[in-house]
Amino acid sequence: MSDTHDFDVAVVGGGPAGLTAALYTTRLGLDTVVVDRGGGRAAMMQDTHNVIGVTEDVSGVEFLQTAREQVQAYGATHRRSFASGLERRDDGRTFALETDDGTIRTDRVVLATGFSDAKPDPPLPPTGRGLHYCLHCDAYMFVDESVYVMGHGDSAAYVAMIMLNFTDEVDLLTRGDDPTWSDETDRMLRAHPIDVIHEEITGMNRGLDGWLESFEFTDGTVREYRGGFPMYGSEYNNDLAADVGCDLNDDGTVQVDDHGRTSVDGVYAVGDLVPGHNQIPVAMGQGAKAGIAIHMDLRPFPRSVEEIEERGAVDADEVPAISASLREAARAFREEAVESPADD
């Protein structure tokens, strides 16, 4: 490892996107550290949906724990810490990542810090037991069930109309706020069989299993729901991207190309921090593409003709181009796989 850096790659964020990026960079021979403060949207999942090969009885916490163990088994370093600052170092090539545990010097940075859902005021059911944030993940759960959508803007109105694809019982709860959706959206909304409820929620009832049963309203009515979706926007965790000068979109997402490259050379962004569908398989795909792109950028071989003319042919003692620690981890992983074959 060079004396100018501690790691080849630093991944900030321990969700599906960040851990997949770390998996790829590690398995492709790059010394990688994951800086993970814990929590995140995936950790809140009671059940895992829409991830092929992962059954629904797996919680988000279990899903992430398995992923962390996989990445560490390949030789990556995992640190439970908060990253508070990012800047390019004086050499112009590497970065300094400030964390609770000190400064990490790294050649490449992957930002996978995601966003936080803006949560409405209580009374509300627990997340995953009637309070849901991903229509594409959870709409299937509410086929032929009574569903609410909370909010007063265009996104709330559209989600309410979309839910009619799954059930004929959809209420749009503005909770006392004046509607801010457009005239066109209003015309569409009035043409769909959706009840718009303007009264504020005063109480919430749950069953013995913890699931939502009903909301109570200021006019004294009680309306039953199996669950629903609050639509109050998102707060993107883009402070590190802003620190280092990455271009941001108007909504707070980080601008990236198809492989996660930001406007700052050497900095990548993946997952919920970038535009697109906020889905685990999508995030994992983005992490994989970023990991491969970083590998192709940092790998020393093949040495180009220009480099051969400048530095000479590749010497036998220069290969393999993988650190001693990763070579040891790879050998240990291979030996364990031989000792514990999958068909035992």
Structural commentary:
By secondary structure, the chain is an alpha/beta fold. It folds into 2 domains: about 5-115 and about 235-300, FAD/NAD(P)-binding domain; about 135-230, 3-Layer(bba) Sandwich (FAD/NAD(P)-binding domain). It contains 9 helices and 16 strands. The protein has helices spanning about 15-25, 60-75, 135-140, 155-160, 185-190, 240-245, 280-300, 305-310, 325-340, and strands at about 5-10, 30-35, 75-80, 85-90, 95-100, 100-110, 115, 145-150, 170-175, 195, 200-205, 210-215, 220-225, 225-230, 235, 265-270. Strands 1, 2, 3, 4, 5, 6 and 16 form a 7-stranded mixed sheet that branches. Helix 1 (about 15-25) runs parallel beside helix 2 and helix 1 packs parallel to helix 7. The radius of gyration is 24 Å and the shape is elongated. Keywords: Flavoprotein, Oxidoreductase. This is NAD(P)/FAD-dependent oxidoreductase. GO terms for molecular function: oxidoreductase activity.
Shape label: elongated
CATH architecture of the largest domain: 3-Layer(bba) Sandwich
What is the CATH level 1 assignment of the largest domain? Alpha Beta
Number of domains as seen in the coordinates: 2
Radius of gyration: 24 Å
**Distance between the ends:** 38 Å
Which percent range describes the beta-strand content? 15-25%
Oligomeric state of the chains in view: single chain
Low-pLDDT sequence parts: none
GO molecular function: oxidoreductase activity
Protein name: NAD(P)/FAD-dependent oxidoreductase
InterPro entries: FAD/NAD-bd_sf, FAD/NAD-binding_dom, Ferredoxin-NADP_redctase_2
Domain FAD/NAD(P)-binding: 7-287
